[in-house]
Amino acid sequence: IAKFLHGMHRSENQKYLLEMHVRVANLLLRAQDIVRAEGFLERAGALIGSDTEPSMRLRVKVCNANISDAKLNFTKAAQLFLEAAQADAQTLTGSNAVTARELERALHAAVVCACLARPSAQRSRILAQLIRDSRAPSARAFPILEKMYHGQLIRPDERDAFVQQLEDHHRSPDSEGRSPADRSLMEHNIVAVSRVYEDISFDQLATILGTSPEEAEDAAARMSQSGQVAATVDQVDAIVRFAHSSAEGDVFDEQIARALRAVARVRSELAAP
């Protein structure tokens, strides 16, 4: 880092300074110095001009995505990684050329961060974009992404396999003893449960989540208060009651109808001479 800093102090070339700021930011990020890395990236952003190569702009975006990931802002990180992955490799030439392999790595990072992001409308949009990307199934975390997109429960063995793929900061416990991965997967499963049950006891929910009734109650209450799930927590009866809108019911009914029509079409094709 000292070598890069020395060169930066002696140069007035904007292109060189931009490249060096991004390199130093990445080096600091590897050293887990997030605050200083963010400072260098902000200064790099100020050096971007109308003549900055698309490849350099993309490297700034990926660095920003990595910093967001390190700060546990997974929704922002997923969005930035996805935007980077969707770039046209043919336009990313020049002295900072970006390869198709690098774009694929950005997509895989987007998949992981989308899986770790808290349930929200923005995350749902990111999941939908990723599920439509033909490259996404090659990501190791794709099975989890697919289940999240379809609102399906994630089993303990699937959760464990996913967690083993993650980086250390994704698995490090917070002050409450839960890692970002634990919290994200638990919240997803609560949303999945809310689509199936009208109400559920704390004990039943705890069994599904693989946690204690107290933790299940706290998680449901927290998500209800933040608006992540429409529910009321009844502490007297030890039950979580989920609110289902008529619109949700209409969508679910239409999904069932489409599935039945598909089955009928297949049967008729098989029965045809």
Chain-wise SSE layout:
Blueprint: H1 2-10, H2 14-30, H3 34-46, H4 54-70, H5 74-85, H6 100-116, H7 121-131, H8 142-150, H9 156-165, H10 168-171, H11 180-194, E1 199-201, H12 202-209, H13 213-226, E2 231-234, E3 239-242, H14 246-271
Antiparallel strand pairs: 1-3, 2-3
Helix pairs in contact: 1-2, 2-3, 2-4, 3-4, 4-5, 5-6, 5-7, 6-7, 6-8, 7-8, 12-13
Structure description:
The chain has 273 residues and is mainly alpha-helical. It contains 14 helices and three strands. It has helices spanning 2-10, 14-30, 34-46, 54-70, 74-85, 100-116, 121-131, 142-150, 156-165, 168-171, 180-194, 202-209, 213-226, 246-271; strands at 199-201, 231-234, 239-242. Strands 1-3-2 form a three-stranded antiparallel beta sheet. The longest helix has 26 residues, at 246-271. It is globular, with a radius of gyration of 23 Å.
